[in-house]
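User: Fold this; tokens only.

Assistant: Input:
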Amino acid sequence: MTRSFWTNLKTVFERRTPAVLFALGLLVYFSRLLTSPPGINPDSARAGLYTLDFLYRNVWPFYIYQHFAPTPLLIYLQAPIFPVFGFTLPALRGVTAFANALSVPALYIACRELLAGLDRRLANRAGWLAALGVLAFPYWTMFARHGLEGTLMPLMELLVVATLWRGLRRGRRIDFALAGFVLGLSQYIYIVARAFPVAIGVACLAALITDRQLWSRWRGLMLAAGIASLIPLPQWLLFLDAPYTFSARLGESAGQLIFGVPDTVRVFLEKLVNQLLVFGVRWETGYNLYSTRPWLTPMLFVGFIIAIVWGIRAKLGGLRFVLAAFGIMLVPDLLTYEGTAPSASRLMGAIHFAFLIAGIGCAWLWRWIETQPRLPRFSRYLVLAAVILFGLEAEWDFATNVIPKVNAYPGLEWRAGLIEQAEADFILRNSGDPILIPTSEYTRASLAFLLADRFPARHGAAEPPLTPGETVTVLGPVDPERATTEGIPAGFIADEWVLLKDGAAYFLPPLKNSLGYYGGSSEIYASNGVLAAVATRAQWFPVEPDVAPVSASFVYGLDLTGYTVAYFAPGQSVTVTLYWLPRQRIERDVQLFVQILDRNGEAIASIHDWPLHGAYRVRAWQAGETVPLSYRLNIPAETPPGPYRLVAKVWDLAYQRRVELVSGGDVATVAGLKIPLPPPSAQPAQVLDARLGDSIRLAGYTLDSAAGGLKLTLYWRASAAPDFDYTVFVHLVDAAGNIAAQADAQPRDGEYPASIWTASEIVEDERFVPAPPGEYQVFVGMYRWDTGERLPAAVDGERVLDDRVDLGRVSVP
């Protein structure tokens, strides 16, 4: 009776093991939300903003720009969570924390299925050891809390392994169908998941070669493959229609293939060695802020090695299946370059396979110890005890050593989102009053997400909803140019604000001198004690910007209606504000290009930007609202005087092409700009009062003969902006009245054409006229190049013959 009782209890416990492990997973992963640093990851925050657009603007995300891939699964999973729990950090991280809690029993089930035909006890032990190992993997539990989409991969992978291997054992179509469905669905998780179908294919081949009996399940495998191909069909249709979306990440520095970098063989070998070190020696990656410990504790690493040796020597289909899948999932990191250190995100698909392998090896070692009659009875529990003790030591070190250092580490507040968290806490506590924050602060995805719960609506606001004299709180960063995980902002622009009021965020253009500050300031500190921002009370006295009209319509339904340009000079930064108006809902994500071109069409300054860094992307804009976007362009110090052109372009992100204008072409000219000439370097030798047309005056000149020709300096002055780019002609006339030499060119050889002259500006125009030796009479005039018509010329009020001004005689040696 006693034996029967314990047997029944053991059976019940085995049946409840997945539930027990799930409960442990919930405890571990959700406790990290409370005990770990309160930072927020910008990638997960931006995905949260996609969910905001989905919920409030009905924008169905599919191609996710910041991930360079169709990865919408996380967003659709978050959509029912945020309305219930709000746009908060626990809600942002909750989906991935829950998924990772599910991955713990999934590890157990996968082990049980892979080894079920070999030894039931071995399979159960392997599952327990693998599950306990991953629970005590501090870096993974910390990484999973970020809410990153890739952390859904382990659960999906383990479900595929469990259901597919169950199908291979039992031959049930439902198992193969489920495996195919989850495998297809995994393609919408993360770009690295594209390697997973390949890994499963290679793993199945390894299993079939090892165990010939599995060939009888070929129909089930074909069913799984068919369903797995059907589910991601929309993704493949996108790849065919817009090929860039398939390989976009490989064009980025954070994911390019190593074959495109110098010394490929060395890089490959270094990455391979570093990957091997990850398992049992040291984890080294720039993203790892929390620990440099290896993936596996010493006991699990021993099990990992044992399982590899066992899998090579023994013909075990399940073990060879998982070893093959693990090896393939290392390839995305091995073949991409971001340095030679392993990438945490690109290795996400291999992490749980490593624990699964280690659990199998430890279970085999446990069984071997039990078969040794000379060892004491208690030794059979040494493997389990070692796994638990090493895991507890890792947790203790993490809690008492690593996290305190992270919280106190100088400079980490910029990378861990602690500054944005402090700013958000202050804003949410004072959200009853209007608050102004710099646009460069709001467009950090981390802060925009944290404010979305209280300010879910976003609007362009060329005219702010504030009354003159209204009191506002101005929140200013201590260092607006600080480095973060998102890099330096495109440009902190003074007096450019986002207004937070009445549940909405309003994007304002730069409004210079619109605030009257009074009273003292209050300091805002991050959780690690670093000064994050300063809040000051002010009154709003709007100074309307001088907006010049523009008329440019792009075919996607996006209009450019106006602009403002600040001071434009060499060696300075110029602020450009463009006013955009969507005529209709924009269906594609676009980037906006702003460039300043010289007279040859070459860009001297350029910036291309995902509007507002994704905090309010174009697809979420409402038809009819005006959205001001400001840019700071740095003008090179060596930029010469002359005419320049401010242009705007719209770039389709998925199709990698310019969006055309309704009127034709794909470049919208916004405005003509110029860098003025410096004052003349010398005074004219001869003063003159010659007028050409209604707006141009020749105020003087200097004649100098030189070997082979004439050196001539003309001093032009405009009384008003000329209408055309006139051409200057210089005639050297000999004694017989014939033109012996002639030089025609725009002023300063076209580098400073007449059409950009302003009233009272003096243009010093030096030129050389080649001529043979002799005595010449020098004449000067202007004409339109397109018609050849000369400007009427007058000296001292008298019209001159042939509309050319006589500058006197010169002798060319």
